Amino acid sequence: MAGIRLRHSGLREQITGGDSAAVERQHALGKLTARERLDLLLDEGTFLEIDMYRRRQGGGLRSGGRRPYTDGVITGSGEIFGRRVFVYAQDFTVFGGSLGEAHAAKIHKLMDLALAAGAPLIALNDSGGARIQEGVVALNGYGGIFQRHVRASGVIPQISVILGPCAGGAAYSPALTDFTFMVRDTAQMYLTGPDVVEAVSGQRVTHAELGGAEVHGGRSGVATFVHDDEESCLEDVRYLVSLLPGNNLEPAPASPPLGAASDERPALAEIVPVEPNKPYDMRRVIDEVVDPDSVLELHEHWARNVICALARIDGEVVGVVANQPMMLAGVLDAVAAQKAARFVRFCDAFGIPLLTLVDVPGFLPGVDQEHAGVIRHGAKLLYAYCEATVPRIQVIVRKAYGGAYIVMDSRSIGTDLSLAWPANEVAVMGAAGAVNVIFRKELAAAEDPEGLRAELIAEYTRELMHPHYSAERGLVDDVIDPVQTRAAVARGLAMLRTKRGSSPQRKHGNVPL
Fold it and tell me: Known PANTHER family for this protein (predicted)?
């Protein structure tokens, strides 16, 4: 028995140690190994590996009979801040992390376990793609992964971390998950690589230019988070998990309350200019409303005219959607609506209350926007809010004009509590624009058009845009002092904590995708 145990122990050490030359090559590329990544991601000593001895059964085309253990992916379960997660880490030192039949079967098994246990799934991607030598079974393996992603969507949180190449069909896996992290310089994600692009189009492009972290973080919107190195990336994955429920039937983990219900923030009276066209950073408002150092912003570099973030208010997790006047004056456009809609749907799926901070002059006008389908994309955000049954609080910080006011979780589409600051302006459009439309003929015929315009603007503002106009009609529940915003929101969330929503009986709605 001692000899058997010794041989078994030696085999395990051989598997976990890996090929030293391959490990050196991985480090030379500026990347950690799969096991080093798992050590950073998970609480120490909590990882339970599954299918360590799994390897392919067939040889494959000109494989030389190589059948390494793990088959290029490490699968198992561990804990993050004491909470259960399931994780797989592709091992680039074994077959370049390529996906073959055994590799895919391990991932399928892990995904099934994660769904059955009701715990988050984390994928650490570092793969050359499908293992061509195994033919169509590799494609079949990807199909099984995609099917399981869809089955788990809205049931358990799914997180993809791109730490190397993620090419071809493999790229659809991150696209189906809830959050995607990428690391600059080492991570690439695309359907067709530079060689194929050049062969088809004649255009020469580098891996980074085609599908690097900067591209997907700032232009395509595929990457939710972009980091400079693997260590900071995996640390933020840990923080994200600390904000999420294990599944759609559990509440998000709470932190100790901080007395937010009586917390006044004098800075809020100074941050926002009274002038409706003067910019300011909405992030400063968010920082004053939520708990200190709790904000995790999503898609920070994409569609920057709207902010989406997870944070805590009095220890409870909330999703924050806010217009950003520092970018395009905070207007909504096609990409901003897509960004916010997906975030609203995620929060609703996992029972996370929504706080919407509104300072929006409207939708971005223009031929490009109309041709880009701003109607369809704006309808996505409208649909997402209308469908959401979680507690919803709207705060009109300054202005809310036109259809964008409706879309930003107005009372008319079902927000539970609408609050407004004293300088709020809620209207079809700004006073100057409204006067130009309504009194066009009178202004054209006037001896002093500018004087008349100023008089009419003052009258329009006084009659239709005064701070209590919406409150008098029940479209705003309370006009609050800005310094009391954090307290008012905290009290509102406490009031709505036991809210229960219901939806009509149907298979599913038809989202304007």
Answer: PROPIONYL-COA CARBOXYLASE BETA CHAIN, PROPIONYL-COA CARBOXYLASE BETA CHAIN, MITOCHONDRIAL
List of domains in the chain: 30-243 (3.90.226.10), 260-427+468-496 (3.90.226.10), 431-464 (no CATH)
What are residue 375's phi and psi, to 5 degrees?
-65, -50
User: What pLDDT does residue 214 have?
Assistant: 95
**Quick one: pLDDT at residue 6?**
66
Determine the Cα–Cα distance for residues 126 and 91; give it in Å rounded to an integer: 7
78: which strand partners?
85
Determine the Cα angle at 237 with ends 285 and 384, to 5°: 55
Instruction: Report pLDDT for 371.
Output: 95
E strands, 57-111, where?
73-80, 83-90
Q: Which residue has the higher pLDDT, 14 or 424?
A: 424
**pLDDT (0 to 100) of residue 464:** 74
The upper half-sphere exposure of residue 285, i.e. CA atoms within 13 Å in the direction of its Cβ, equals: 31
pTM of the model: 0.92
262-269 contacts at long range (C-beta below 8 A, 24 or more positions apart) = 262/487, 263/486, 263/487, 263/490, 264/483, 264/484, 264/486, 264/487, 265/289, 265/483, 265/485, 265/486, 266/483, 268/482, 268/483, 268/485, 268/486, 269/481, 269/482, 269/483
In the predicted model, what is the mean pLDDT of residues 130-151? 88
Q: Residue 69, SS3?
A: helix
* Pair type for strands 306-313 and 316-323: antiparallel
Q: Specify the pLDDT at position 398.
A: 93
For residue 267, the tally of other CB atoms under 10 A from its CB is: 13
Residues 127, 78 contacting (CB under 8 angstroms): no
Q: Which of 133-137, 283-287, 362-366, 404-408 has the lowest mean pLDDT?
A: 133-137
Give the dihedral of Cα atoms 228, 231, 232, 233; nearest 10 deg: 80
Quote the pLDDT of residue 54.
Answer: 82
User: Hey, what are 212's tokens?
Assistant: 């690097």
Region of residue 364 (phi > 0: left; psi between -120 and 50: alpha; otherwise: beta): beta
- 156-198 per-position pLDDT tens digit: 999 999 999 998 888 999 999 999 999 999 999 999 888 888 8
**HEC readout, 6-48:** HHHHHHHHHHHHCCHHHHHHHHHCCCCCHHHHHHHHCCCCCCE
Active site residues: 168-169, 403-404
- Rounded distance, CA 430 to CA 416, Å? 26
Better-predicted residue by pLDDT, 440 or 330: 330
- The arithmetic mean of pLDDT across residues 490-497, rounded, is 97
Assigned token pair, 304: 């920057």
In 263-324 the beta strands, taken as DSSP E runs, fall at 296-298, 306-313, 316-323
Alpha-carbon span 214 to 184, nearest angstrom: 7
